[in-house]
Amino acid sequence: MKDLAIHPSHRKLAEVTFLNLDKKGNLIIDELTLRVLAPYLMQNLEIIRTLDELSNLSMVAYTAGQMDWLHDICGAIDYIQDESFLKKGVRTCRNQMNP
């Protein structure tokens, strides 16, 4: 089985969720738990938003035939993934362009 790359904020979200399950598996979120989760939810939003924007831009660059721009965008995607994720199991844009 392939190793998955897990961002630290995703791991923390899972940990907090696990710690706030009742015996039946229902998630109990109180004000304190929400305060703990909020920064990780915002970090997750920023990572996903940025990667989605770059992915959409890469399609525009590819469609326009702008390979230098595409290379720059893929470099930005790789940088975010290298900075944000464990390297195990991550398939980057650059790897997809040059199999």
Instruction: Please provide the count of β strands.
Output: 0
Beta-strand proportion: under 5%
Low-confidence blocks of residues: 86-99
Number of helices: 4
* Radius of gyration, whole Å: 17 Å
Largest sheet: none
Tell me the overall shape.
elongated
Helix content: 55-70%
Distance between the termini: 20 Å
Give the helices and strands as they follow along the chain: HHHH
- The residue-averaged pLDDT reads 81
Question: SS-based structural class?
Answer: mainly alpha
Q: Could you please describe the fold and organization of this structure?
A:
The chain is mostly helical and 99 residues long. Helices cover 69% and strands 0% of the residues. The chain contains four helices and no strands. Helix 1 (8-19) runs antiparallel to helix 2. Residues 86-99 have low confidence and may be disordered.
Map the helices and strands:
Elements: H1 8-19, H2 31-63, H3 67-84, H4 93-97
Helix pairs in contact: 1-2, 2-3
Q: What are the defining features of this structure?
A:
99 residues, 4 helices
Gist of the model:
The protein has 99 residues and is mostly helical.
